[in-house]
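[09:14] KT: can someone run the structure on this one? pasting the chain below
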Amino acid sequence: MKKFFAFGVLLTLVLLVMPAAAASPPAISVESIRGDVGETVDVPVSISQNPGLSGFVLWLEFDPDYLEPVAVTRSELLASGLFMDNLADERQLLSSVNVTWADQSNFTGDGVLYTISFLITRELPGGSVDLLWNTQRSNASNGNLELVDIPLGDGQVLSAAAESPESALSAFWILPPLVLAILGTGLFYLRKRSKQHRQKDLAQK
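[09:31] RB: done, structure tokens below
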């Protein structure tokens, strides 16, 4: 009976979570990447839950004291249409990568839109440099020339030597159960040995 009850609770939770996952909003995000000074790192810009786009202008800002953009590579998702970036503009020290894309019809695919290659020119302060979207200058539209509201997710370029917060958090959560397991095993054997000694003492009496 208890097994059927537990199964029913689990099934209810799954049914509650599935609609929430399916209803997740569209988003354009930049991935966080690790690298060392002197290395060129490739930072993908991706879209998920694409509602249908025929054009966008995306401004990604960074600190030029530590990063230098060297290339922007369009993906197969944007194989057609006009694709432009501002890396050819050498009149000023770039502090943003601006990408413009436009086509005659919508595309609805998910995945990498384009990849920005950054050269890490100096040691990163505090182990990271932010990659931030300029939401005032960025926009997207569909085939009806209507603006499409898509949240933009920021990212970072991280020092390869810096510890990953995810790994540290994982270690934090794994350690307590491991300690409890060791303590539990030790207590089990201590109780077992104590019981054996008591039985031996009773036998001798």
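[09:33] KT: thanks! The chain has a mean pLDDT of 80.
[09:34] RB: yep, looked fine to me
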